[in-house]
Design a protein that fits this description.
4 copies of one chain form a homotetramer.
Chain A: H1 4-16, H2 25-41, H3 51-71, H4 76-90, H5 93-96
Helix pairs in contact in A: 2-3
């Protein structure tokens, strides 16, 4: 995540436009929040959104996340698995099964 | 994105806790916005954040994006590449090079 | 909104700490998104949140909105009423009654 | 905040359209995040945004905050001042002057 093909396609897209100058980590973090808001807009008044629209907005969130990971030299697969291990420690199965509470109130 | 190992690890993590009941598309979309806000918080007052913190928050955004893609039967690689093609059409190289303007003002 | 008492209390609070240097419009806009995410977190897994928590997080969103309005010389009452007039034009009663659709699909 | 005129105008606007059915606290919290993202978009690639646009987007955030406060029976002035007192306790002037650090690292 991404496979190399996706990462390379995104790099090439930005390079052709010389957009690295705009893709500072801070601008990318803002962009992720902005796109997350557009994704949420699909669910603003209903829990049954238009799937084609969700698909596009989710793609935008992924795209900026991938740009930020690449910019910071982070491997998306690695950071997700590593965070999952930490989360596993905070949410032991026996305590968290069938519960949505935060670890600090479990 | 994810490779199968990551997708399977996330599925197993949620299944062990029986969290599918909480992972509705709407709740996952809210979660993506919430985590995007936590990522942005790393940059609230400075453009030079603590990298270890950014890494964790970015992992959280990715994680909920992956849960949502899996829930909706979407392939992250496929939707990113497909959206990139659409974006390519809106931002031709000759018009968008060195510019951060939106396509509708290019 | 705010009444003068609130605006003056916020100004004094920031001035005593010399925080005007951090309160650039951009940092305040980021702060509003961050706090909006914390407010949304009250509703992450349930539509029945803890009211005391909502109250605090909503206060934080208002606070940064007021800081931004003050920084930009905007009168909150005036901009809300002025935007409401524009929205009224986009959502005529006869078309928008009992509907949550956006104006462009009404 | 709001003065009575603003609160009454917002109530009348929603009542005429029978939009109370959509204005659940959860939907309003989502709406605040969505509008906060649109406000942030004004600052996506630059710290010098178009002021007329900021003004509109900030008005939208205020509007949904006011709807949520009204729905929950909260007085915006009161909750902001009350939260400010709590924040004052966490950020004593002598410790927080000229610093943007969070209270837990001061």
């Amino acid at each position: 995540m991404p496979n190399d093909q996706v990462r390379d396609a995104l790099r090439r897209f930005a390079d052709e436009r010389n957009w690295g100058q705009f893709h500072t980590p801070e601008n990318l973090a803002k962009s992720i929040s902005i796109e997350a808001g557009e994704l949420l807009e699909c669910f603003q008044w209903s829990s049954e959104p238009d799937l084609a629209h969700v698909r596009e907005e989710l793609a935008d969130v992924f795209t900026y996340c991938l740009f930020l990971a690449d910019r910071l030299g982070l491997d998306p697969n690695e950071i997700v698995l590593s965070k999952l291990e930490a989360t596993r420690g905070k949410y032991p199965v026996e305590k968290s099964r069938d519960r949505s509470d935060r670890y600090d109130v479990l």
